[in-house]
Amino acid sequence: MFTIVEKRILNDSMTLMAVEAPYIAKKAKAGQFIILRVNEFGERIPLTVADYDREKGTITIIYQKVGKTTLMLDQLNVGDAILDFIGPLGKATELEGYKKVAVIGGGAGCAIAYPQAKALHNMGAKVDMIAGFRNKDIIILEDEMKAVSDHLILTTDDGSNGNKGFVTDALRKNIEDGANYDLVIAIGPLVMMRAVCNLTKEYHIKTLISMNPIMIDGTGMCGGCRLTVGGKTKFACVDGPDFDGHEVDFDEAIKRSRTYFDAEKEATHEYNC
Ligand code: FES
């Protein structure tokens, strides 16, 4: 059992939890994920390692209450325990050798983008962080992102924070103003990551994205997380979750992400009733 040692509400739909998992905390690196099962009746869901503390032996996860499992998880509080918590899974992001990087997060994706920015910042890279949200009320991790970047730009779709626009608008402006990025990292909804990749292709800037498809075993055996990258089948759980965004078949990934939409909606509805 894995005890929850911190629970923090980030906004109406997002929550941060720190969980006691010393063996995972000892090895975790930016870009990796864990798979958890809340209780013996629960399904397995992957969540990215948002942070880790090797001394305290804790792993931080951030989840959005979007379905039955995350609603079940949200019922737990400090002192309660999660039944299964496995990891670190997936490959760590390769961040060595970059000098100037734009790290882009879209909504909940900022929870995954933040550890990437932190790792790059700790390695001495210059980091511009661009974080996009629908409106100012759902902005998360602003202080944390500020602390690990040389420049943080926050955009909102509705302009409620005074900076209306999409992350791609801010990225294009930075590039045209002369930011000489040797890497862009984009993490968020598939349509956002596709838009960033279309933009960076124009400028021939290497772009990494983090894929978060449906996962079951997390060890490359079930095939649930398969994607097409560069014309080849890849498994996000063992080959990723990071991939060269210019090689990913986004149309297929978006279609597959909707496969269980109705079943997920039904399970959430039943859980709420
Ligand atoms: Fe089963 Fe990746 S989760 S192959």
Instruction: Give the count of structural domains.
Output: 2
Oligomeric form of this entry? single chain
Helical content, roughly?
25-40%
The residue-averaged pLDDT reads 92
Number of strands: 16
Helix/strand-derived category reads alpha/beta
CATH structural class of the largest domain: Alpha Beta
What features would you describe in this structure?
Residues 1-95 form the FAD-binding FR-type domain. This is Sulfide/dihydroorotate dehydrogenase-like FAD/NAD-binding protein. The two termini are 28 Å apart. The longest helix has 13 residues, at 110-122. The strands form four sheets. This protein has a six-stranded mixed beta sheet with strand order 11-10-9-12-13-16, with helices on both faces. The chain has a five-stranded antiparallel beta sheet with strand order 5-6-2-1-7. The protein has nine helices and 16 strands. It folds into two domains: 2-89, Translation factors (Elongation Factor Tu (Ef-tu), domain 3, Beta Barrel); 100-210, Rossmann fold, CATH 3.40.50. The chain is α/β, with parallel strands linked by helices. The mean pLDDT is 92. It binds FE2/S2 (inorganic) cluster (FES). FE2/S2 (inorganic) cluster binds at residues 215-218, 220-225, 235, 237.
List the keywords.
single chain, 273 residues, alpha/beta, Elongation Factor Tu (Ef-tu), domain 3, Rossmann fold, five-stranded antiparallel β-sheet, 30% strand, binds FE2/S2 (inorganic) cluster
